[in-house]
Amino acid sequence: GGFLVISGPPVQWPKKEREWEELQAVARALCYELIIVEGNTVIWKKPDRDPCLNPNEFRIGLCDESDDPNVAWYVNLKRCVTPSFINGGYAIGKIPGWPERLLRAPSRALIMNNGIDLFQADTRRWATRVAYYKNTLKVKLGTPAIRNVMDMNAFFGGFAAALETDPLWVMNVVPARKPLTLDIIYDRGLIGVYHDWCEPFSTYPRTYDLIHVASIDSLTKLPGSRNSSCSLVDLMAEIDRMLRPEGTAVIQDSPEVIKKVARIAHVLRWVTTINNKEPESHGRGKILVATKTFWHL
């Protein structure tokens, strides 16, 4: 039931007639409903049922059952359409409206083992933790100082959901080596991407006012292993590149990891404080709150 809007070439564009015809043919093969063509803009509506696939010259077929539609990192593109696992459950009009969808466990959470319980616990945990960030650690969330925010280890997007009433937006990043939960983030009405944090993130430097990361050390690890595929130093340098001068970094991990992070932050000329986790939280974790200083050679 979603909408596809294409504006510009090849839509009714001079000398692009063949490409425009092919684009329309692909849309027909996928059973997309044409809503309007006006000037150089076209709008189609995707069917809200399991994939409809018309005979076509493009060799587009149904994906194999073994294909995981959530896997989007280091995989080749395929000319196939993925069936829905929960018939119609993802369609616009089937999921709750905003803002109810933000806090209600989506149908795709059912695919995970204990997914509903995990979702609800994650939502409660981040509501408590964000209140602690604001009230005790005095992080300037909810103020005009912070608009562009990134969560580097988003999982279900609970951190972003807890900031619903604040005048900001959150880029939720799901590490490509961790459970692939980006679909649930989108079902909540949030935005996000997959990324391997041992590679540079595609963004302009000095973009984010606040960068948040829980379990930073895990972002450098190979799945199911204690071995690292990159160094914590490299990851911290990448955070520094993305963070705006005088921006804030909030990093949570074990005391041992936070101690390492603090040493690297000092080299980066960040001003840091190390804090205990919120009283309601169990475990030995610490929270580093840092400000990137404005300096030049």
From TrEMBL:
Entry keyword annotation includes Transferase: yes
EC number: 2.1.1.-
GO cellular component: endosome; membrane; trans-Golgi network
Annotated localization: Endomembrane system; Membrane
Superkingdom of this protein's organism: Eukaryota
Any one GO MF annotation of this record: S-adenosylmethionine-dependent methyltransferase activity
Topology with respect to the bilayer: Single-pass membrane protein; Single-pass type II membrane protein
Keywords per UniProt: Glycoprotein, Methyltransferase, Signal-anchor, Transferase, Transmembrane
Biological processes annotated in GO: methylation
One Pfam family in the UniProt entry: Methyltransf_29
Enzyme class: transferase
Family assignment from sequence similarity: Belongs to the methyltransferase superfamily.
Identification of the protein by name: Methyltransferase
